[in-house]
Amino acid sequence: MGGFGSGRYAEKYGYTAEDCLIISINKMFRQKCFVPGKGFSGTLKWTRGERETGSIGYESRMDIDSPYMRIHYTWKKTENCDYRIYLTITYPFFGGKRFWFLCPHCGRQVGKLYSPPNSSYFLCRTCQNLTYTSCRESHQYDILAAKIAASSGLSLKQAIKSIKNFQKEYFKN
Q1: CA-CA distance, 120 to 25, in Å (whole number)?
Q2: Please, is 112 exposed, middle or buried when counting C-beta atoms within 10 Å of its C-beta (0-12, 13-18, 19+)?
Q3: Which of 62, 69, 137, 157 has the largest CB neighbor count within 10 A?
Q4: pTM listed for this prediction
Q5: Alpha-carbon span 94 to 97, nearest angstrom
Q6: CB distance 14 to 39 below 8 Å
Q7: Nearest CA to 70 among 98, 41, 96?
Q8: pLDDT tens-digit profile of 54-91?
Q9: Which residues are CB-contacts of 83 (< 8 A; sequence separation ≥ 6)?
Q10: Cα 42 to Cα 11, 64, 69, 103, 115, distances in angstroms
């Protein structure tokens, strides 16, 4: 029972970045998938423990004026996906070059592209409507605090403070 992507939580609240397959431009440079001035091809693989959870083929072209990465894969055993993700370069003040993906949907410069379990494309976090687990956890008591504030005449800030004080006292040990 359970497992990766199971349950109804994601349907109600959406997926988090941690639920996704991720392509990181920095990781690809470290693994020599991108070599400035050259073309390269290979396979990206994702694993969970010893089990492979996904893989895609890629071809990177860094030897042309508009560098790109072409990815190709089959999604849900029926849909063949094959598209280009263009790269852009910035020049930081401290020197050197920094490469970025351009999101295939909105064109935003990003370092990572995400594909949640319900999506067939790798897009930026904004286009996939993703958040981080830590962001959700930091606001998990907001509704409770609002109810306490409404029923007790406290401000929302005071109610949040009283919940945090209660947590500190209750979970001391």
Answers
A1: 19
A2: middle
A3: 69
A4: 0.70
A5: 10
A6: no
A7: 41
A8: 889 999 888 778 899 999 988 777 778 899 999 999 99
A9: 70, 71, 104, 121
A10: 34, 19, 11, 21, 19
